[in-house]
Specification:
The two termini are 26 Å apart. The longest helix has 18 residues. This protein has 149 residues and is α/β, with parallel strands linked by helices.
């Protein structure tokens, strides 16, 4: 990518097991990135908008978003992100257990950048997360998301 600054990744996931697997996959990749984790849709929007306890949060370069979240669904978060001029350029990858065709279609209609169904197998899940990380860190040119507070 030519840019050696760490990639800021926001994981929006309420399943602690999936959070741990994702953290492990990122650690195994040994890529200089920072994984931030929030567990519901309201926290995700506060983090992205740098509100409350997230006032000093970095603007993520990539969001990994589960659809089935408490307090505000992943679809609601996706809709708000893509409707916000300050946030809409952040790539959002849906990473969810749902393989329902209507969820896939709706996510892309709402401008998700990718839709990935979480594998049930631990090893395969790690491989999928590492592939997402590799793709967005080494292949894709991400816009600098930094903005003035």
């Amino acid at each position: 990518m030519g840019d050696c600054r760490p990639i800021e990744v926001l994981l929006v996931e309420d399943d602690q097991g999936d959070v741990l697997i994702t953290q492990e996959a990122f650690a195994l990749n040994k890529v200089r990135n920072r994984l931030h984790v929030v567990s519901d849709g309201e926290q995700a929007m506060a983090f992205l908008r740098r509100e409350g306890p997230y006032a000093e949060a970095p603007t993520p370069d990539l969001v990994l978003l589960d659809l089935n979240l408490p307090r505000k669904s992943g679809m609601e978060v996706l809709g708000e992100v893509k409707a916000d001029p300050l946030l809409r350029t952040i790539p959002v990858v849906i990473l969810t257990t749902s393989e329902a065709e209507e969820d896939v279609i709706r996510s892309y209609r709402m401008h998700a950048n990718a839709y990935v169904a979480k594998p049930v197998d631990f090893g395969q899940f790690i491989r999928v997360v590492r592939q997402i990380d590799n793709f967005f860190v080494t292949v894709v040119k991400l816009p600098h998301q930094g903005r003035q507070p």
